[in-house]
Amino acid sequence: MKVARFESAKGPALAFFTGEHWLDLTRALQAYSMLTGKIPGDPITDMIALIEAGLLRADFLEDLRRFFARGHVSGEYYLDSEPLYLLPFRPRKIVCLGRNYAAHAAETGHQAPKEPVLFGKAPQACIPHNAPIRIRPSYGRVDHEGEVALVIGRRAKDIKEQEARSVIAGYTLVNDVTARDMQQADFNQSLPWFRSKSIDTFCPMGPAVTPTDLAPWPLELELSVEVNGELRQSSNTRQFVFDAPAMLAYITRFMTLEPGDLVATGTPEGIAPLRPGDRVTVSVPQLGALSNPVEEEADPV
Predict the structure, then answer these.
(1) Measured between alpha carbons, how far is 119 from 192 in angstroms, rounded to an integer?
(2) One-character DSSP codes across 217-277
(3) pTM as predicted
(4) Where are the domains positioned within the chain?
(5) pLDDT tens by residue, 66-122
(6) Widest distance between CA atoms in the chain
């Protein structure tokens, strides 16, 4: 059970995978509103609007599935095939954790941190499932970094760890693509990581959002990254140095999180270069598979 954004005949809309079929969620919500009066009838075509309306919930989506399965409306609300994925949403901000798997910290020459290491990534770097990651020769080495991301569902400031789950609306996948040579050059000059992390197309995201209640808590998700079918990264989120409650309590000590913010939880060991012609796929069974080709782009003259 997951929600995606797709290109419908009438423009961007939301779709809901029931476990058997994809349902045009935007149109279904309007029909449900008209027939039951239980929710507002304005069209919802945006994931953040769905979150803010409190409708990205497993119990509500299950009720909706049963409602349509009973035949209250015709099958025209079901899609004929898997949708053409758009970016699930453009995050308002992206907060990332560095070195949040001890083995990854070690492979980059660092100790596991004593407190969370935070950095940012530009939302404009986000691209959807199947869109190309574009790399230029001048970037040097470019690595994949598959991650689970927390989709924030409500305003959060100075939260306690026991409140953390209530802050999360759902989960998605990201690939924190990194220009590694550029990052190292910035390290050497004591400069921030932002440039090497925020290049256009360097944040594949999606393909969908899975509601919080459909993933285990505490988080125990099997994460893998394959390049051209070859396994490169494999771990479980239980290997986090800082778990989801600890990271959200720490982040909100310093900044307010809002609905539609994204928290990228860190990548495990196994980072490796990407080259033009590759296809990189980040997978978690409960969240789906985020797959993107890699294409070369010429440097500007």
Answers:
(1) 8
(2) SS---EEEEEETTEEEEEEEGGGBSS-HHHHHHHHHHHS-B-TT-EEE----S---B--TT
(3) 0.95
(4) 2-77, 94-296
(5) 888 876 555 678 898 889 999 999 999 999 999 999 888 888 887 889 999 999 999
(6) 64
Backbone angles phi, psi at 147, to 5 degrees: -150, 155
Topology of domain 94-296 in CATH is Fumarylacetoacetate hydrolase; domain 2 (3.90.850)
What is the signed CA dihedral for 118, 120, 126, 132, rounded to 10 degrees? -80
Residues 280, 269 contacting (CB under 8 angstroms): no
| Nearest C-alpha neighbor of 12 from the set 30, 24, 28, 29 | 24
φ/ψ of residue 253, rounded to 5 = -70, -25
The C-alpha atoms of residue 191 and residue 86 are separated, in whole angstroms, by 34
Tens-place pLDDT, residues 124-140: 999 999 999 999 999 99
Report d(CA 301, CA 295) in Å as an integer.
18
Alpha-carbon distance of 30 to 37, in angstroms, equals 10
Contact 4, 13 (CB under 8 A): no
CA 25 to chain centre: 20
Whole-number Cα distances in Å, 72 to 17, 18, 28, 31, 177: 18, 16, 11, 9, 45
Tokens found for residue 240: 């986090």
Q: How far is CA 221 from CA 13, 73, 147, 193, 239, in A?
A: 28, 36, 11, 27, 10
Residues near 61 by Cβ (< 8 Å), separated by ≥ 6? 1, 3, 16, 55, 211
> Token digits for 196?
């090497």
**Cα–Cα distance between 145 and 119 in angstroms, integer?**
14
Q: Which residue has the tokens 């910290």?
A: 105
CA distance 212 to 164: 11
Give the pLDDT score at 72: 57
